[in-house]
Design brief:
about 725 residues, alpha+beta, Beta-Lactamase, Phosphatase 2c, domain 1, 6-stranded antiparallel beta sheet, 18 helices, 28 strands, elongated
Length: about 725
């Protein structure tokens, strides 16, 4: 090489051969290296062999002439073997990768300006040889005037070194991506509530470094594997559903052994599971991973990850999949528990609430129940519609304190008790008082708010009582709406002896009565007054008639409430529209008279008189009032139980509503003592009741019942001649 090219070639001394018969590894004639001091004194004896062994070449760049001279190894590393010892610096720069060219220029210029050193990794593009990585290290040597004269240095092939560094960087990036993937997956699975949510999150996961071509999540139900969700498969081409646990299938093996099954090629699958291979062959996959989902010692299901090419997963890939399987298993266990609790709560709530609202002539109803957005989604809110005699209807809305199974159980008992009291014919105030006493006797530690209203189908009169509950809203026929004031008492269960005043108001045909619990009007950010105003505005305005219109109104109110995920209280909603009296509906009045409430007799007489007049037989009002009073008084005086009054008007012909009719009045009691007709003395204060009944009634009698008896009389009526 020329002088400017760097070090000259130096012959390498050879060690002497051992004598014949002597071992190269031992013996008397063993070769010994030269002393270290000699090597240090003469670097030429070891420097050139060391550079040759490591493929390091030397170069000399004449900065003034811009010519680079390199030895054979340098030219081979630079890809300039065919250019001779010297070549133009521009030729060298043209071989650099475009991204690396400005970096090399910048570092060389700085070294020349500072008379210092420089070095860099760069890539060269050699024709027919592809891309190589090169590393150089050089120092600028000044000339006699102190100006930059030459840059001398070393250059060597760094392709393996660069690839190793790039591989290390790739692994670091991949680890970072997988760490971020684990965090994001954990967050997504923590938000998954149901099994369906867990399956959706799993099948949408982009596994970093090993992107799958197919994902399947299956659960173990009753000893069989059932697929919940899959992606990347044609219809019916994923793993077979309902796989028995004892079958020769990799999924069943993974679940039985609780160990992942890795199949890297179709050949391996076919050899290990020949019975299951025909089904797997239809999927066009070439490698599979079957991950068992185990949580708290229980096998819950299975994850299947599949690829379109043969793949042998390394230790890090298997660790990632194992971690993923553990997270999915924990989330699946939590989701299955949630689904079971939700199903239990929903089933219990369905049993405790009315399954359906019976058709009511003259009325249209719509009901809704929305569980709370948090917790077990079960509570003490309820509604009920109770058909009453004479076509009347009782409507109930209530809320037992609490939002748990205990509150729901108390609600179920209270609903049944209140319904029974209403069906027995008790007036609204007595129904509420008895329900309060019933709840207090249960000694549950709970109280309840309630509103009960009895609506008269003939003329739309509403008799309402309220126990600490929200007042009802009414949408009037003209489209206006407002809160209907109802006198109230204490919540049920607080004062067993408390009384509840009755408030009377009327509805016109087409008007709607709205009853709801406080969950509909109160939230964390909306107080009761604001909530009531919002609901009032929602139901105001003209509304079409028909059952569908009322259902649409209830649906609109429900949608507004269901959008809130922050709702921490359940909601019961009941809408009742009075459509007006029916033409030939049976006319009946049924009332219960408490034994200890003699003042109730006058109220019943007044209601009976009003009913007789509404029925169009007002001429019988005086007689029926007198005879009914005698029968009720007789039952209360001679027994220690309540009396039940039932009055019915029977038309002789349904085709002639104003034709002849019969009015029948019955009084039931629980006494087995039969009345005896006797003739009282002149000064006697009693004994004339049956005489009056016999004298004024067209027919009368006493009928035995299972426990007690029934006394009755009938009065005939015919329209007056024109």
């Amino acid at each position: 090489m020329a002088e400017s090219g760097g070090s000259s070639m130096v012959s390498v001394p050879q060690p002497p051969r051992p004598a014949a018969g002597a071992s190269a590894l031992g013996g008397a004639q063993r070769w010994r290296p030269e002393p270290v001091a000699d090597l240090v004194a003469d670097p030429g004896t070891w420097l050139e062999p060391a550079m040759a062994a490591n493929g390091i070449g030397t170069f000399d760049w004449d900065i003034q002439r811009d010519v680079i001279v390199g030895d054979e190894r340098a030219r081979r590393v630079l890809g300039l073997s065919g250019f001779g010892e010297g070549f133009d610096a521009r030729t060298f720069l043209d071989l650099l990768h475009p991204d690396d060219r400005p970096v090399v220029r910048r570092r060389v210029r700085r070294a020349v300006a500072d008379l210092g050193q420089c070095g860099a990794y760069y890539r060269t593009l050699c024709a027919g040889e592809g891309m190589h990585a090169v590393r150089f290290r050089g120092r600028v040597v000044p000339d006699q005037q102190g100006l930059p004269g030459h840059m001398v240095g070393f250059v060597w092939d760094a392709t393996a070194e660069l690839n190793k560094r790039l591989h290390t960087e790739h692994l670091a990036v991949l680890r970072e991506e997988r760490t971020r993937f684990i965090k994001e997956t954990a967050r997504a699975l923590s938000d998954a509530v149901s099994v369906h949510d867990v399956a959706r999150v799993f099948t949408e996961l982009p596994l970093p470094g090993i992107p799958p071509d197919g994902l399947v999540l299956a659960v173990l139900e009753n000893g069989r594997i059932q697929i919940q969700r899959s992606i990347g498969y044609r219809d019916g081409a994923q793993a077979p559903d309902h796989i028995p646990m004892d079958s020769d299938h990799p999924a069943a093996l993974a679940l039985r052994t609780r160990t992942p099954v890795f199949l890297g090629s179709p050949r391996e699958y076919r050899e290990r599971f020949p019975d299951a291979w025909p089904m797997a062959a239809q999927t066009a996959r070439r490698s599979w991973v079957f991950l068992p989902l185990v949580a708290s010692g229980r096998t819950l299901g299975l994850c299947v990850v599949s690829f379109d090419e043969d793949r042998e997963l390394d230790a890090e890939d298997r660790t990632l999949l194992g971690t993923l399987g553990g997270m999915v298993a924990q989330s699946l266990a939590r989701a299955r528990l949630h689904d079971a609790e939700h199903e239990l709560a929903a089933g219990l709530q369905r049993v405790l609430l009315p399954r359906r609202i019976p058709p009511l002539p003259g009325f249209t109803t719509a009901v809704r129940y929305l569980p709370a957005g948090t917790g077990l989604q079960i509570g003490g809110d309820w509604y009920d519609v109770v058909p009453l005699p004479a076509g009347h209807v009782g409507v109930v809305i209530g809320d037992v304190q609490g939002h748990d199974v205990h509150a729901a159980g108390v609600m179920g008992q209270l609903r049944i008790a209140l319904r029974a009291y209403a069906a027995e014919g008790h007036p609204p105030d007595a129904v509420m008082a008895r329900a309060s006493r019933f709840l207090a006797d249960l000694d549950t530690g709970h109280f309840a708010t309630c509103l009960y209203a009895e609506v008269n189908v003939d003329y739309g009169a509403v008799y309402a009582v309220r126990a600490g509950h929200l007042e009802p809203l009414v949408r009037r026929a003209d489209g206006s709406s407002g809160v209907q004031s109802v006198a109230g008492g204490l919540p049920l269960g607080i004062d067993p002896e408390g009384t509840y005043p009755v408030t009377r108001f009327t509805l016109d045909p087409g008007e709607v009565l709205l009853l709801c619990t406080d969950g509909l009007v109160e939230t964390r950010t909306v107080d009761q007054d604001q909530g009531m105003e919002r609901i009032r505005q929602a139901i105001a305005g003209p509304q079409p008639q028909g059952p569908a219109a009322l259902e649409a109104l209830a649906g609109r109110i429900e949608a507004a409430a269901a959008d809130s995920h922050e709702r921490d209280d359940d909601i019961a909603l009941l809408l009742l529209r009075w459509d007006g009296p029916e033409g030939h509906r049976p006319r009946t009045l049924r009332r219960r008279v408490p034994q200890a409430d003699l003042a109730r007799i006058s109220e019943v007489r007044r209601e009976l008189r009003d009913a007789v007049r509404r029925w169009g037989v007002g001429e019988l009002a005086d007689t029926v009032e007198l005879l009914t009073s005698e029968l009720i008084t007789n039952a209360l005086v001679h027994t220690d139980k309540d009396a039940l009054l039932t009055a019915r008007l029977f038309q002789e012909s349904q085709d002639v509503p104003s034709g002849p009719a019969r009015l029948r009045v019955e009084v039931d009691d629980e006494s087995d003592l039969w009345p005896k007709r006797r003739t009282p003395g002149e000064q006697a204060s009693s004994g004339r009741g049956l005489m009056l009944v016999e004298a004024l009634a067209d027919a009368w009698g006493v009928d035995p019942r299972g426990s007690g008896k029934r006394m009755w009389f009938e009065l005939a009526w015919a329209p007056a001649a024109t």
